[in-house]
Amino acid sequence: MSIATAVDSYLRHVAVERGLAANTVAAYRRDLGLYSAWLAADSAQSPPRPISDLRAVTRQHISAFVQHLGLRAESPLTAASIARILSTVRGFHRFLLDEGLVEADAAHDTKPPKLALRLPKAISIEQVTALLAATDGDDVQRLRDKALLELLYATGARVSEVVNLNVDDVLMEVFDSVRLTGKGDKQRIVPVGSFARTAVSDYLVRARPMLSARGRSTPALFLGLRGQRVSRQNAWLIIRAAAERAGLTVPVSPHTLRHSFATHLLAGGADVRVVQELLGHSSVATTQIYTLVTADTLRDMYTLSHPRAR
Fold first, then answer.
1. Where is the active site (predicted)?
2. Architecture of domain 3-98
């Protein structure tokens, strides 16, 4: 079996049998495209290439590929990007072994580069309040922007999850919640507070019908000025414009509201596993990084406030 055929088989496997989202499958395709191109390139250095038979791939090849990603002249990748690509390659080689296409998993023992600890960038409650206040207004655009930002902060949703919402996913009348579809098409029900409920209700009654009349019929919750579904890029521009009107001097993105949601919940005493469920994290370890942010905040407050802290 050729490398290209093996890659196609793996992508069908993750798409059909594992049910991964289309964006994830596309990322796997890009990663394995880089890997396949590297295997096919001529090289006299050890370990030798090109390789056309995956059974000839060794641990040394995988290690050399990882090193290549960090040193390539055209655009060396960050440790996080290299770790992601290696994860894809390791999954691919596990699949080859499970399918009996190779005798050994060449990528099993290859370790990703160590990642620097990067704490999420959250903004304060006062800054969030100013950002949301910057969307006040009665015209259709402001009503939509208010509902969008309030919902992002109220649910901690990823921007892709919010822009992909349909009207039927809004469960306000019965459950005061929304149905979000996260990574791997996993759904979760997330409660929505009173401010976001009011903003979404106002938008649905006073703004969405007017926006919907400007375009083709669509079930999308959030619509652009031409009646089409709001894109991730549109959402980013909406938030940036609100941040400028609010006079915020710190960078603000859709993910900033997700980080702030988690940080503010934990600072208010929420259990980390509850926050994990709300964020849609598959592992609590991913959520626990927000506890470090909260600890840093407490440490700063202690240093500023305690008479013998300095």
1. 158, 183, 255, 258, 281, 290 (o-(3'-phospho-dna)-tyrosine intermediate)
2. Orthogonal Bundle (1.10)
Helix pair angle (140-155, 254-267), 10° resolution: 50
Query: Rg of the chain's alpha carbons, rounded to an integer?
Result: 24
| Residue 290 annotated among the catalytic residues of the structure | yes
Catalytic site includes residue 183: yes
Residue 203's pLDDT is what? 97
Q: Name the superfamily (CATH) of residues 125-304.
A: Intergrase catalytic core (1.10.443.10)
216 as an active site residue: the answer is no
Name the catalytic one among 61, 158, 259, 264.
Answer: 158
Classify the C-alpha dihedral 182-185-191-192 as positive or negative.
positive
Structural domain spans, the chain = 3-98, 125-304
Task: Supply the pLDDT for residue 19.
Answer: 85
Q: Give the DSSP H or E segment for 244.
A: helix 232-246
Residue 13 known to be catalytic: no
